[in-house]
Amino acid sequence: MKAKMKNPKRQRRSGSDAMEFLAERAKINYELKQEELKMFKEQQGLEREKMEALTRQQQQTQQQQTEMLQAMQHQRQQSQQQLLNTQMMMMQQHQEQSRAMMALLEKLINK
Fold it and tell me: Which of 9, 23, 87, 107 has the smallest count of CB within 10 Å of its CB?
């Protein structure tokens, strides 16, 4: 024999149940959107901080390069000045030697 199984009838939900469901769903969606917005803002803040740190690092590197170039330029100027001083000294010595030689030659010629 076949036993008949009776399915219990579903109760019909009222309109207020649907409204409660939709309200709850809207609330959950709102909370999710707020959380997404919060996470997005945090991510944007982290990105901004990262960019600021990178900018600071680039500025520091640029400052170091500028200082190094200035130091090299100063050293080059000192070297050039030292070379010029040496050349001037050698020229003066050469002039003194030439005068001494001329004086010696004049003495020899006048004898």
Answer: 9
Scanning the chain, the segments in alpha helix (DSSP H) are 15-110
Cα–Cα distance list, 36 to 11, 23, 33, 44 (Å): 38, 20, 5, 12
Looking at residue 94, its amino acid is H
Residue 20's alpha-carbon distances to 12, 31, 32, 88, in angstroms, are: 15, 16, 18, 101
Q: How confident is the model at residue 17 (pLDDT cuts 50, 70, 90)?
A: confident
Alpha-carbon distance of 55 to 74, in angstroms, equals: 28
Distances (CA, A) of 6 to 9, 10, 58: 9, 12, 78
Residues 67-109 have pLDDT tens digits of 999 999 999 999 999 999 999 999 999 999 999 999 998 888 8
- Quote the CA–CA distance of 22 and 15 in Å, as a whole number: 11
| pTM of the predicted structure, to 2 decimals | 0.52
